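Hi P.,

Sorry for the delay on this. The queue was packed all week, but I finally got your sequence through. Input first:
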Amino acid sequence: MSAEFSVSMSPLPRELLVAGCQDLGWLNGEQPPDPVSPGSWGAFRDRISTRVTAIEYSDGQLDVTVPVGAALEDCDLALGIVRRVAAAAGADIGTEAGTLTINELDEVFGASWKHEQLESAARTVIHLLRQRGGPIAMPGPTRSVYVGERVASELESGDPEAIGDRLVAVARRVLWPDSRYESAAQLTATNPRSGEEFSLTMLLPERACVLPAADRIAVDDPQGAFMIPRSALEHLPVEAAFLDDRNQLVEPVSASVWPDLCRVARAYEIS
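Then the structure:
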C-alpha cells in the first residue's frame, strides 16, 4: 500500500519542497510555483527514483504520497518534504498511523519501515502477477516497469530478505539505462477496418533505444513503412535484450544491415 502524509501550512514556500535536492526532477517538467498554489505534481530524483512521489496542495494542506515499491531514497525525499514543512509550520503530521510529531514520524517511518514496504511491494507484485496471469505495470519517472515471470524469477533468486533490493535494481535498470539509449515513442492507433485499438512504436536504423511495451512495431523501410507484431522482433537481425517483461534495450542496426532487416521483417508484416 502507498503511504500518505499530510501537513497544513499557508502560504507554502516552494523552497520547503526542493531544499537540498540538487537532482530533483518533476514529472512532465511541471513544477509548483512559488509560493505553492493549489495543484498536484510528481517529484523524483534523477537516475535514482523508482517511483514518482505525488505532491498535492489544496486549501492550505500539503499531501505527499509515497507509492508502493518506492526506493529508500524516494521515501527520504517524501519524508524530508513533510518534515521541513511541519518544522516551518510548527505543525503535526497526518499519517496512516495517526497524527504524529516530527520525532514520532522518524520513529514510525524509519529504516525498518522503508525496507519492509519494499519487501512487501516485491512479494505483492509477484502475487498479483500470478493471480492475474499477466505482467504488472509499476509506473516510474521515465516509463513503466513490467513485472512478469521473467522478473519474478529474478526477484525470487537469492536471499529472501534482499528481495526488495532486487526490485529496486530491476526498476533502475529499466528506468535509467545508459544515456546513449533513446526512449522510443509509443503511440495508440486504431485499425480503420476492424476498429481494433493497439499500441505502436517504431524501429529505426542506427538508433540505440529502449523499445517500450507496444503491441506492434513500425519498421522504417525506404520502400514504405510497415507494421509487424512485437513478438517478431526476436526473429530479426537485431541485438535486443529484455530489461523487464516488456521493455527491451535495442542496439543500433547499421545502415548496411538495415535492408536485410527490412527484408526479414516483411515476412511478419501485418496487412
